[in-house]
Amino acid sequence: MPVTLVLKTPPPVPLEAELLTPDAIAERSRADICALPVNLGKRRMRLDDFFDVDGERSDEIEIRGDASRVKWIGRGMTRGRMLIRGNGGMHLGSGMTGGAITVTGNVSDWLGAEMKGGTIRVQGNAGGQVGAAYRGSLNGMSDGTIVVQGSAGLEVGMRMKRGLIVVGGRVRDFAGLQMKGGTIVLAGGAELRTGAWMVRGTIVALSSISLLPTFAYACTYNPTFLNLYAKHIATLGWTIPFDAREGGYRRYTGDTCVPGKGEILVWTGF
Amino acid sequence: MDRILNGVRIADTFAEAFDMRAARVVITAASPKWARTAAECMTGFATSVIGCKVEAAIESELGPEETPDGRPGIGVLLFGFDTEGLTSRLVDRIGQTVLTCVTTACFDGLPQSPERVPVGGILRHFGDRFQSSKVLESQRYWRIPVMDGEFLIQETFGIQKAIGGGNFLILGANQDAALGAAEAAVDAMRRVRGVALPFPGGIVRSGSKVGARRYKKLIASTNDAYCPTLRGRPDTATELPDGVNAVLEIVVDGLERSSIERALAAGIGAACRPGIVEITAGNYGGKLGKHHFHLHQLPLD
After folding, report:
1. Distance between CA atoms of A226 and A228, rounded to whole angstroms?
2. Is residue A216 scored above 90 in pLDDT?
3. Domains and CATH numbers, chain B
4. What pLDDT was estimated at residue A26?
5. What ipTM does this complex have?
6. E strand or H helix at B93, and its extent?
7. What pLDDT shows up at residue B283?
8. Quick one: average pLDDT of B219-226?
9. Mean pLDDT calculated for residue range A207-211
10. What is the rounded distance in angstroms from the CA atom of residue A138 to the CA atom of residue A118?
11. Number of C-beta neighbours around residue B233 at 10 A
12. Is residue A140 classed as helix, strand or coil in its secondary structure?
């Protein structure tokens, strides 16, 4: 049985709840869970000041309600499952190393920032800096998978080192900014400056996107490694094309102003 | 006491086998034809670990649903005496026969094995630092640029304990009968997963004994006791019953004892047909290997 947390009313200002993780709740009684500290502004409060708590000692958590002002949910989690029936706030799943988070609504900025493992699935839209590095930090996400079915904001995958980000809708500017590795799949296109200053890594665009002049066309082909990704992504309920009978990928290398060894693969169907 | 199967006598003896190390390689390509071409090249000159340093054979054809990249593939098993030697053979053979073969990719077929050896991690150097890698589900894959696109290979391959040298001998009334029975046996044995028949067509005609009677430096020489042309010579103690004029051997290596047992049972069952006088097995009195496959204890039909 999962521990169920029902938000009483959305907090008036952002609530910082970084102990809302399976790691913190798995071994705790209901009374201990109710007493977990959360920060409303500078005031330290109890979890049950904001949530009705049901269940105990489980590494599965279900959060119900509009938690778009609840920050740091799933921060650093290593195991278990979280289901958010509604929206999630900033920094959801940041630094997580394992486990899975599913959000049925939208999430705000810094989704999975600097995550090191695990899976996050968002059925709605995400804000900016998905899987990105925090300001001043060298590396963004270093492993794990983030799937956003809707759109996403600025700087998706900024400085990411490894891992996979899939965005179903359109992303805003600077997707893959200063990317160092990993893979970003853009199923719904992107706005400007995709891949700017990327050093390594792969951006897969399933529709035509505007490219910086510092990316050079290499060839049109069907890279075998994408077959592996297609198989993996299919387990997440998503598809990417790879069959040579249906089309090919135009490969652009860059960003040559860095100079970079990254690549942008743009699907071109027949 | 001898056992009779389909009119063929099964000798009360055992096949003697020994410890080996094994790897399974999955080769995929744009079509089954090219996957098989690479696999056949890779398993060429790999009949005996004594002379070839490795024993290898095609294990199975794999459908797109069974391969990591969703393309048609071939599973290949390779057996060596030790991990170090087997690693070298993997690097050599994949580098020369799979990397060079059009459209192919190469994956580890023993992903659960905790013992890992670098293969793609060595072959990546062919990329001259133009190579790149991808990490997916904790596995690193190397993308090596080649003239038809990219060669994709897994960084590490699994190695596991295995058994080599399972065998049985088909004693036929003539060469045609022995060959027909051996071919039927090979067809049956190749349907068993986890085994490899490393000799040409799965069949050996030059069965050997340990050492030599006259050439002291040889580590193996002809099995004179089973050579029909030597029957009657005073310096040969023939093991051939009357009526036997041709003998063929089938050697089987396997990942596990149970898979070798299944393969031996399937092969012996298929080989027991008209024209065959006896099925027996090669052993060295139990001194060579610790794995003994007693023919009478196999699940023969």
Report:
1. 5
2. yes
3. 3-16+164-297 (3.30.70.520), 19-160 (3.30.70.520)
4. 94
5. 0.91
6. helix B83-93
7. 86
8. 93
9. 94
10. 21
11. 11
12. coil
CA angle, corner B108, sides to B80 and A248, nearest 5?
140
Q: Structure tokens of A11?
A: 């907090």
Check residue B287 and give its pLDDT: 76
Distance, CA of A162 to CA of B134 (rounded, Å): 8
Q: What is the mean pLDDT of residues A87-108?
A: 97
Residue B136: both structure tokens together:
């997916």
- In terms of DSSP H, where are the helices of chain A? 22-25, 30-34, 225-234
In angstroms, the separation between the Cα of residue B79 and the nearest Cα of chain A is 28
Let me know how long chain B is: 301
Whether B61 and B180 have beta carbons less than 8 Å apart is answered as no
- Answer whether A44 touches B (CB < 8 Å): no
Locate the domains of chain A by residue range.
Answer: 109-269
Dihedral over Cα of B48, B98, B120, B129: its sign: positive
Name the burial class of residue B85, with classes exposed (0-12), middle (13-18) and buried (19+) by CB atoms within 10 angstroms of its CB: middle
Q: Taking 80 as the threshold, does the pLDDT of residue B282 lie above it? A: yes
**Residue B7, exposed/middle/buried by CB under 10 A (0-12, 13-18, 19+)?**
exposed
Inform me whether the C-beta atom of residue B19 falls under 8 Å from chain A C-beta atoms: no
Q: Tokens at residue B56, please? A: 């290898």
Q: Answer yes or no: is pLDDT of B1 > 70.
A: no
Rg (CA), chain B: 21
CA atoms within 13 A on the CB side of A22: 23
- CA-wise closest residue to B107 among B69, B163, B79: B69
Q: Is B290 on the interface with A (CB under 8 A)?
A: no
Task: Using CA coordinates, name the residue in chain A closest to B143.
Answer: A225
Q: Using CB atoms, which residue from B136, B143, B152 is nearest to A232? A: B136
Residue in B with minimal Cα distance to A245: B30
Find, among A138, A143, A139, A140, the residue nearest to A120 by Cα.
A143
| C-alpha–C-alpha distance, residues B301 and B285, integer Å | 27
Whether A106 has its CB under 8 Å from any CB of chain B: the answer is no
Two structure tokens written together for A53: 């708590």
**Tokens representing residue A120 in the block:** 């996050």
Of B30, B71, B152, the CB nearest to A225: B152
**Which DSSP category does A133 fall into?**
P
B241 alpha-carbon distance from chain centroid: 29
